[in-house]
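Form 12-C: Joint structure prediction
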Amino acid sequence: MALRHAVLAALLDGELSGYQLAKAFDVGVANFWHALPQQLYAELAKLEQEGLVAGRRVVQETRPTKRLFHVTDAGLTELERFAAAASKPSFIRDDLLVKVQAADHVDAGPLIRQVEERAAMAEAKIDLFRRILRKMRGGLGEEEFLRAGRRVGPYLTCLRGLAFEEGNRDWCLRTAAILRERSPAAPDGRTAAVPGEGIAAMPREGTAPAPRNPEVAHAER
Amino acid sequence: MALRHAVLAALLDGELSGYQLAKAFDVGVANFWHALPQQLYAELAKLEQEGLVAGRRVVQETRPTKRLFHVTDAGLTELERFAAAASKPSFIRDDLLVKVQAADHVDAGPLIRQVEERAAMAEAKIDLFRRILRKMRGGLGEEEFLRAGRRVGPYLTCLRGLAFEEGNRDWCLRTAAILRERSPAAPDGRTAAVPGEGIAAMPREGTAPAPRNPEVAHAER
DNA sequence: TATGACTATTCAACGAATTGAGTAGCAGCG
DNA sequence: CGCTGCTACTCAATTCGTTGAATAGTCATA
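Section 2 - Result
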């Protein structure tokens, strides 16, 4: 139930069309949420029905007519309500982490390549975020802007995005180096996986009073 | 289509029941994916049908009978295939970031409280991750373990989780401090929001050759 | 001796997200 | 002149994820 609020938050800085919104949410710049165009159009329609946003039609000379949306007072009230309610914890969902989790059972070559690719993507995002931050604070220094700037919300979320991508890059580079070193093969990848057993991955530590192994009989299937 | 692979990856270190799997995926320890028990039971059933995992029934004295699952050869092959295929970029979805994005339009008090609460949660996870890492590497130093340890996949993903939570904590503390300083009110929160206009949040920079403002006429609704 | 918490799983219903396709005019390129 | 790509949006199908509830025995706590 939070896409709607993400949309409201994104519209706070001025009118946007569904299309512009989609750009903002799609490409890397979605540093606080992610969504596809179809979802956004659908959400805008719902928000408009409920009176939380309002749109005005803008006819253009050379391009298709578009509709620019802005947050209404009711929308602001709803955002206020949302902001005061409890947040659910954020969680990561990342293909690449799943693959690294399985790293010891899987061909290291392609994995290393993907981790390094991801490092490069992170680097690109870091550059982008830095540019955006510079633009937002205008001539001011960061501390100054954060103390006195008019609108710091987007700046703060962008800072989080920056730190996230820096963490990503650092971890990817280190991980790639480690996997490369462990992988006895050619410098550009290409290895057979070394199976390797043991050492529990997940903790499954005694939260309960240690179930003193109540297993008794085994029947299959 | 990656929950299945997350399950396979989690089962690599030994048999788990749906329930145990749910624990691992639910509480903080899901440092590479997140899912609810119902999803996991459903996914296990599908995986079993497709022969990617196999379960054996374990009758227990005092507790309900459970089924322990392990990855089959076909499952390993599928993981291998997955690991070699392209990854989709990871994205963040976080309520709290949405709220901070709207920080300038919203009551600062509850927000600050939530950000600080999140910092504390991050701290707790940091402790947990550090304990897990220590346990995984046994007596060895980190570098040593990463060079020579048998199973580094889970260690590496846990390192990412640790760095993520450290980033979370640092950002939350800084953000809380900034919002507190900007908020003219009592030291424990309670402020009226300062509306404030301008400054574009999203970049919407000229990716296309600068649409030289083709707006012409406005009609409403 | 209730009470609630844990183990272990299943079912149903709903809402959210992804996939894929389609429309249609304009701009720039070779 | 045809091609690709951009703006701007819509529709349908399907899968994925969340919410809520139920069952049923065991164990520790008050």
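Section 3 - Comments
The radius of gyration of chain B is 24 Å. Chain B touches chain A through 109 residues (CB under 8 Å).
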